[in-house]
Amino acid sequence: MNKKYDFIILGSGLGGLQTAFILSKQGFKVLVLEKNPKIGGTLQSFRRFGCDFSTGMHYLGSLDEGQMLNKIFKYFGLFDNIEYKRMDEDVFELINIAGKEYKYPIGWDRLRKQFLEYFPRNEEVFDKYLSLINKAINSQALYSLKQPEDNTTTTEENVLMSSAWEIIKSLSPDIEIQNYLAALNFDYGGEKEKTPFYVHAIVTNYFVMSSHRVVGDSDQIANALAKSIKSFGGEIITKQKAIKFLFEEQKLVGVETHKGSKYFAEKFVSNIHPANTMDLIEDGKIKGMYRKRMKSLENTISSFTLHIKMKEGSFKYLNHNIQYIKQNDVWYASYYDDKKWPEHFFLHTPPQTKDDSFANSIQILTYMKYEEVKKWEDSTARTRPDEYLEWKEEKAQKLIDLASKKFPGLRDNIEAYNISTPLSFRDYIGNSDGSLYGKISDFNNMASNYVSHKTKIPNLFLTGQNLNLHGMLGVSMSSIITGAEFVGLKQLLEDLNNA
Predict the structure, then answer these.
(1) At what angle do helices 197-209 and 471-487 cross, to 10 degrees?
(2) At what angle do helices 123-139 and 197-209 cross, to 10 degrees?
(3) For 409, phi and psi rounded to 5 degrees?
């Protein structure tokens, strides 16, 4: 059988596109198959009411010159014709916790100074916290674009794999201090009983180092990657949903799509959730225990989002994010009481130009459990019943009510809005439960929770947010790990550091 491609990549989310970029840049013949009409996964934007809304990527970290994402973006050509807006140094995130407002500034020195203004005479607490952050970063060499060393795990590193909540709590008995140090946990779907400290450390450091927004649509990033892939000789085909892998005896040789098309290659990379990837493999072609473990991976919580068009000149552009948490516990939103929902929101104003004075649109997000929409899961966007539409509208009004506590008069200045629920996200991304950040990292089950880029099928590999961490940082690292399997980690890290 004549193999047309060296690699077929399933899914054109960030991980799929970055992996395709790495491989095609090295001269491999690469095909990317995407089920949706548009590429990009959560990088996609959509247009409603004359406004462009990003679906998943709301801001970026560590993009200043010399910082890690800056190097990664240079390698992937993501500064070419794309503008980024640096967020306010003194406050990239403003967080209201149980009625008290706290600023999160850019830079660890500023953050230390701000912390001590709120909590005088607690230098030792912050310095111990920062020491643990640095140890976590240093223990994860790849997150500094360094070659990992095969060292024996130390007692201190074992601590970093422990509960983020427990470690932060051990630094001070003051609940307000605990809340402040953990306040960015919405950025990684933090859960009290599960999130390991190293996840908290890496994500917090990522945004504190510097924070930026994409000016305009986030799908500029996906389109730029696609343009490069094609310039290297790669192909991207949309509206082709993979429905099964094709085998010759035990060897994976191809993939069939819902349109009956068949594509063949030597190797395959899935950017689809590992559980959904297992659905493409017929019985007997992969170890049953491995399939069971991938299918049983627990995912992070989902979200409910309002995409709002504001009346012209009614809402000032905010060069920082807003979080509002009613409870005196920043971890509460992930285990909320259904009857009291919502008690949390995250609000941001997407910049359309470098010098916006007013926001033409805002987005308001909060957590939502998939169980709340499960009874409608067999419906599609075009067949949702009236009951669901009424429920969705009722929830939207409650979220607007909560946001109005921070922004009085908000409701009167809304011109139109679009609503996304866990079902919207599930259908859009293609996972089973609309998970916001893919599989959860659980310090209680680090071994069973681990997902390698290698599968039990020798020529099938994985990439994307379910390998390491979510977001631009975690997904970029997953694509580097997967790509390095074929181009060499030493060479790839050298290329990234010298980009």
Answers:
(1) 100
(2) 100
(3) 85, 0
Give, rounded to a whole angstrom, the gap between the first and last alpha carbons of the chain.
Answer: 39
At residue 498, φ and ψ (nearest 5 deg) are -105, 5
Q: What is the CATH number of the domain that holds 285?
A: 3.50.50.60
CA-to-CA distance for 258 and 360, rounded, in angstroms? 39
Separation between Cα atoms, residue 168 and residue 181, nearest integer Å: 7
How far is residue 250's CA from residue 16's CA, in Å, rounded to a whole number? 25
CA distances in angstroms from 446 to 224, 227, 297, 492, listed in the order given: 35, 38, 12, 27
> What is the length of the chain?
499
267 is a domain residue = yes
Closest alpha carbon to 35 in 386, 429, 336, 406: 429
**So what's the pLDDT on residue 290?**
94
Tokens matching residue 485? 């399997």
Confidence of residue 441 (pLDDT cuts 50, 70, 90): confident
Quick check: 313 pLDDT over 70? Answer: yes
Per-residue burial over 337-352, b if 16 or more Cβ lie within 10 Å, else e, is: eeeebbbbbbbbbbbb
Q: Is residue 493 part of a domain?
A: yes
This prediction has a pTM of: 0.94
Reference 288, options 298, 278, 273; nearest CA is 278
Confidence of residue 158 (pLDDT cuts 50, 70, 90): low
As for how many domains the chain has, the answer is: 1
pLDDT, one tens digit per residue, over 266-312 is 999 999 999 999 999 999 999 999 999 999 988 889 999 999 999 99
Residue with tokens 């209201």: 96
Burial label for 373, CB within 10 Å (0-12, 13-18, 19+), is buried
Cβ-Cβ contacts under 8 Å for 137 (sequence gap 6 or more): 143, 144, 201, 202, 205
- E strands of 123-234, at which residues? 211-214
Pick the more confident residue, 62 or 217.
62
β-sheet bridge partners, residue 30 = 7
Query: What is the chain's alpha carbon radius of gyration, rounded to the nearest angstrom?
Result: 22
| Residue 34 resides in a domain | yes
Q: Cis ω on the peptide bond leading into residue 458 (within 30° of 0)?
A: no
**Position 234, amino acid:** G
Inter-residue contact 31 to 234 (CB < 8 Å):
yes
CB atoms within 10 A of CB 493: 19
With beta carbons less than 8 A apart as the criterion, state whether 476 and 469 touch: no
Q: Which tens digit of pLDDT belongs to each residue from 50-71?
A: 888 887 778 999 999 999 999 9
Domain that holds residue 480: 5-43+218-297+439-497
The answer to whether position 74 is within a domain reads no
Q: Read off the pLDDT of each residue in 383-401 and give the average, rounded to a whole number.
A: 96
Identify each DSSP E strand in 388-477 by its residue range.
414-420, 460-462
